[in-house]
Amino acid sequence: MRLYGYTTQLTHRIYPVRPGPHRERHFEWKSNQVSLSVFVSSFSFWRKKRPSLFEYTFGRLVGKEIDRMASRDMVKRAEQLVEGAMKGNDASHDASHVWRVRDLALSLAREEGLSSNPDSMEIVELAALLHDIVATLACRDPSEEKLVENFLEEEGIDDGKKTKILSIIKGMGFKDELAGLGNHEFSPEFGVVQDADRLDAIGAIGIARCFTFGGNRNRVLHDPAIQPRSDLSKEQYMKKEEQTTVNHFHEKLLKLKDLMKTKAGQRRAEKRHKFMEEFLKEFYEEWDGRA
């Protein structure tokens, strides 16, 4: 980046574009999260003629770099929280699932044009990272339900962002959509995070997760005598009655393509949905001895 006669590099140094008389000046910024030292080689022209413009522009540059570093540190702490919370889960809902959802959500956000807004991208990343923690911990200990909210408060997330993140997390569930409680007036951030979570439930990864989940709960792989339930209500979906792993495709996974909120999510869901249909066709043929 050129900055009024200077070339800036985010290695924390600013160098003159061309040789000339200069002297080195040292700046240091510290916060409770980052410490940044900066050396500046400045022309005497800048020191004498336009010092205020230089200091203002340089200060903004360093301020943005400090914000970026602080944000990455916060994401690392969120990742550590995820690893601790998801430890011991089977592979259908482990930390790797969260990393995939985060990567998908950020990719969808870029396709949906959110990358120009750093606040939106931060909301998307944090919501994606923290989306499964409440459900996981609440099953073990109801007192842990506020863990995510407490984390956001400790990190100093402002109330507006915190409200959006918690709203995304609380509104993502498939069962709520069955009950007509889905988020009909959703934000772009909500759309990309929910779509990312649902994309990870379909396609090749979705198939692997489905059989992992069923195996962990000792479900029957397939039984032609047990038909998939149709037009499920929230109560029926939550009811712990005997079901097969393959029926889960018909009761939930094959419905997700038409529930995508974003154009980017819809495009990706088409391919993954088709892959599941082809898999089930082959599965039934092999089950019946026809393949």
Give a short synopsis of this structure.
Helix content is about 55%, strand content about 10%.
Characterization of this structure:
This protein is an alpha+beta fold and 291 residues long. The chain is 57% helix and 10% strand. It has 13 helices and 5 strands. The chain has a 5-stranded mixed β-sheet with strand order 1-2-3-5-4. Helix 4 crosses helix 7. The N and C termini lie far apart (61 Å).
Mean pLDDT: 80
For the secondary structure, the number of strands is 5
Termini separation = 61 Å
Q: What fraction of the residues are assigned to beta strands by DSSP?
A: 5-15%
| Helical segment count | 13
Q: Helical proportion?
A: 55-70%
Biggest sheet details = 5 strands, mixed
- Cα-atom Rg, whole angstroms? 25 Å
Order of helices and strands: EEEEEHHHHHHHHHHHHH
Query: Which word captures the global form?
Result: elongated
Spatial order of the strands in the main sheet? 1-2-3-5-4
Low-pLDDT sequence parts: 1-47
Structural class: alpha+beta
